[in-house]
Design brief:
The chain has helices spanning 55-84, 88-118, 120-135, 139-145, 148-160, 163-172, 178-192, 209-222, 225-240, 249-254, 261-274, 280-289, 292-297, 301-341, 379-388, 399-406, 477-487, 491-496, and strands at residues 4-5, 19-20, 39-44, 355-360, 376-378, 422-427, 439-441, 447-454, 472-476. The chain has 506 residues and is an alpha+beta fold. The chain contains 18 helices and nine strands. The longest helix has 41 residues, at 301-341.
């Protein structure tokens, strides 16, 4: 990606006379490439993992949270696909959300499969049992750590009691219901704007106003009434399928009596037929100027929905913050006990901050009985997959790529150990969601690839690190350069990156 900036080299809004950003330094590209056993690094911003949690927390994830979300996300995916049908415009607008849902779903499925295969829950319960027994072997430990696990679990049991209600409320106000989410932002901004900036919710402080406006504008590019109607209808159906005492308050307001599926859809359709929020300029003006009093007097049905849902979302946020605050007092003692018990040999959690992960280029055996997976895949295997599947998606490699492989136009990008160009490689680095796109560096801190995935057997390491089967998957820099050179003949780009092209345009 090339970033464009103002003529002064500083960040600027779009303008025709913006210029490419010229960094003071950038990563040199490794043209030699990795070999098995080489040292490798990934520098990036992983999301978060949950290894340093109690067994109850892991149990909640495996037994309820992940299976529930896999089921929900599949329903959203089916809903979007069915609504889009063969309409190209709707398929394009639904694509980004479907891709995100598929990614989350795949991650959870992999985590559940790995947890089951590795007996993760049994390991976690046994380890916690041993930790508690270790705590109780000495009076000093018992005095310092004695009830910390039970205290954490007591807080969580209370928090989990409303899990279904909380889930549906959060979905109603999420990006899976984009226009309602936009309306909630307008309501929240109206509440926060009259306050002094330091007293505002950080999300609505003045530093974020431009970004919030841009989100309203960005929404318009993917907005579709048909998709929004289908998504909101599905979310309401999910809430109404819960027992009456678990249904969100908004649903009781909308449907005092249990509705038929047709009545739910007709109600949602009427919201979108009567709202003005489909107009991006109207949304932006409300975001910038509306007061709570003005919004309360509005007859816009989606704004009224947002006003009624807003207290539930604020209460949910406050509940999460109370839990987080209470855990802040307990987690340090739990971490200290666990760290002492494990003698410092614990796998750290990712926490959405920058992290450097290091390890080696290395294959693995999925199970002791299976053959070992080698660390590198090869371009010839791309051609084989293409031939076997007759070029059908996802094996529809471009003809010019297949031609270059079959002609063995490998040039300097060949890896002697495998006799052809490497495509992907495995390392034993510790990465997770959020690391996709992170640069993979060699021992000289040169760019040698891009991390983009993990093996399905290792996804459960987000809950309990499994070093023997957890592998990061990277695209090899030699493959990137080969595609740019031998396949695309992107000489200008190669030269800009300091690489001399080896293949002339045919």
């Amino acid at each position: 990606l090339r970033a464009y900036v103002g003529k002064d080299g500083k960040p600027a809004e779009f303008a025709p006379d913006n210029v490419p950003y010229q960094p003071e330094s950038f990563l040199k590209i490794d043209t030699e490439g990795f070999k098995p056993g080489d040292l490798a690094f990934v520098v990036g911003y992983p999301g978060s993992t949950e290894r340093l949690t109690t067994a109850l927390e892991t149990h909640h994830d495996i037994e309820w949270n992940m299976p529930r979300r896999v089921d929900l996300y599949q329903k959203y995916i089916d809903c979007l696909n069915d609504t889009a049908g063969d309409t190209e415009e709707l398929k394009i607008k639904a694509a980004s959300m479907i891709s995100g849902l598929e990614n989350y779903k795949k991650n959870f499925i992999g985590c559940l499969a790995g947890a089951d295969q590795q007996g993760l829950m049994e390991i976690k319960w046994e380890e916690e049992k041993n930790l508690q027994a270790w705590i109780e072997t000495q009076p000093e430990r018992k005095n310092q750590y004695g009830t910390v696990i039970a205290d954490i679990d007591a807080l969580l049991k209370t928090y989990y009691q409303s899990k279904e209600t909380d889930l549906v409320n959060s979905l109603l106000g999420s990006r899976y219901n984009p226009l309602l989410q936009a309306a909630i932002q307008i309501v929240r901004m109206a509440e926060e704007r009259p306050k002094a900036d330091l007293d505002r919710d950080p999300e609505y402080q003045e530093r974020n106003w431009q970004r919030l406006e841009q989100q309203q504008v960005q929404l318009q590019k993917s907005y579709s009434r048909e998709l929004n109607i289908a998504l909101l209808t599905l979310t309401l159906q999910e809430g109404l399928a819960l027992p009456a005492d678990q249904q969100p308050a908004l649903l009781h307001h909308l449907f005092p009596q249990p509705p038929t599926p047709q009545a739910i859809e007709e109600t949602v359709i009427s919201f979108f037929e009567k709202t003005r929020l489909e107009d991006v300029d109207f949304r932006v003006q409300l975001l910038k100027n509306a007061s709570v009093e003005k919004l309360e007097k509005s007859d816009d049905p989606i704004l009224q929905l947002a006003l009624k849902l807003n207290p539930e979302l604020k209460a949910l946020k406050e509940k999460r913050e109370r839990l987080s605050g209470a855990l802040v007092l307990l987690r340090p003692a739990y971490f200290a006990a666990y760290n002492e018990f494990k003698q410092g040999q614990i796998a750290p959690d990712a926490n959405s901050t920058i992290r450097v992960s290091f390890g080696t280029v290395r294959g693995f055996k999925p199970t002791p009985e299976q053959d070992e997976y080698t660390p590198f895949t090869k371009v010839w295997e791309v051609a084989e997959k293409w031939a076997i599947h007759q070029g059908e998606e996802p094996f529809d490699a471009p003809a010019k790529l297949i031609d270059a492989i079959q002609a063995r136009r490998f040039g300097p990008y060949i890896m002697d150990e495998i006799g052809q160009v490497p495509v992907n490689l495995l390392t034993d680095l510790d990465i997770t969601g959020g690391n996709s796109g992170s640069p993979t560096l060699n021992r000289r801190a040169e760019f040698a690839g891009i991390a983009f995935d993990g093996n399905i057997e290792g996804v459960a390491s987000d809950l309990l690190f499994l070093p023997e089967v957890t592998r990061a998957i990277h695209v090899d820099a030699r493959y990137i350069l080969w595609v740019l050179d031998a396949v695309e003949h992107a000489d200008a780009l190669l030269k800009e990156m300091g690489i001399t092209p080896s293949f002339s345009q045919p």
